[in-house]
# Entry
Amino acid sequence: MKGPYTLTVRQPSSPAPTTENPFCLVRGFLQFMESHDPLIVGHGERTAQYALALGHAVELPSQELLLLHYAALLHDLGKFSLSPRVRTGDNLSFEDDVEHQCHPRVGAAILQKWPSLHTVSVVIAHHHERWDGYGYPYGLRGTLIPLGSRILSITDAFDTLTSPSPHGDGQTFEQAIQVLKGSSGLRFDPGLTEQFLLLIPRLFNTSHEIEFLFSQRSPIGELIAEGRVLSAG
# Structure
């Protein structure tokens, strides 16, 4: 890859904290998730960065970008209802796989309790749907899948492919790009996949390190300000 490249991503300011303030709710969920599995929080942070970049590229309005940011950070919240073995999603039995496929629906159900997070819950509920209709949990296809979910599907997959896990090292960027290309029009929205592939060289510097700038009102920024160390890959 050529470089260096820097992409600046800014978040709109959140209103003053209240019990229904989504910023405060998201921060609370992130603190809970980090205390149980920091690797999942790190994955959510990186996925959010990629999702914001793609959202900017397709010119989502500011409010939709903010909700997409929250959805990406919390998209694996439902995994905390699973056993640690099933949560990793590797070498699962059929019964384990059925349980694992419930996590988008579980995460969405948790967030639906707060009206301010309704859109966030919808995006999370459908982030494992496939463009060809063979995804889960509801088997939606094409543009019936919410736009935010289609963005999250691509960016979630890219970070999962390229990040180390308890089961081994991640794939190279070049290998991950080939997976995305091969899944375009099947697993992923082809138009969004093309946009994201164009973005990838701009997301990293020459050392393949992400270069993003979040505002102080970002939940990630708040957690770091409180002395919490999150994995940035």
About this structure: The CA atoms of residues 51 and 151 lie 6 Å apart. The chain has one domain: 22-225. The two ends are 18 Å apart (CA to CA).
